[in-house]
Amino acid sequence: QKEVEQNSGPLSVPEGAIASLNCTYSDRGSQSFFWYRQYSGKSPELIMFIYSNGDKEDGRFTAQLNKASQYVSLLIRDSQPSDSATYLCAVNKGSNTGKLIFGQGTTLQVKP
Amino acid sequence: NAGVTQTPKFQVLKTGQSMTLQCAQDMNHNSMYWYRQDPGMGLRLIYYSASEGTTDKGEVPNGYNVSRLNKREFSLRLESAAPSQTSVYFCASSERDRADTQYFGPGTRLTVL
Fold first, then answer.
1. A4-32: per-residue pLDDT in tens?
2. Residues of A with CB under 8 A from a CB of B
């Protein structure tokens, strides 16, 4: 079992719809969770991070964390073609370092 | 601010050749990281440096060495390149060494023939 798992997709949604991206992790001691967006041929850029159970909203993006079920999700409202990218989930296991474990990423396609 | 810079952007090596990938950041960050990204594998940590003067292994350190030259610079060396090291290499930095936002450089595309 991979430490951080994502469905590789592609996930295809129509423009204006809600895109839901999911990530599960295996280490119950994990403490912080990050969502990165990566356009083809580019480097990852941070969208959001979340530390506590519940929802965290930032513009069209909402991160959701459920530590009991060991999953974290990212919702993108009013999806735009410019949101088409690979979304990487990353987990810090709570050790004394900033080491992140990344999932393999989910490719999102937003169709006009 | 340039953020995190990496050189070179592209490199082709023959099996057995050596090379050093350079990374520098101008954000006064303490921690720096080297990742590799292969298709369908996400990002995997090779080495990291929590602070100047310290380095430690990540998930996939075999075949690599690193040097934290000063607070700004963190280099990755391949002593004897192998085709399995064909990948995209990203350097990243963060202010602290704990659960902090990491900022990535543009990447180096390395092909080993």
1. 999 888 999 999 999 999 999 998 888 89
2. 4, 8, 31-32, 34, 42-46, 49, 51, 88, 90, 92, 94, 96-105
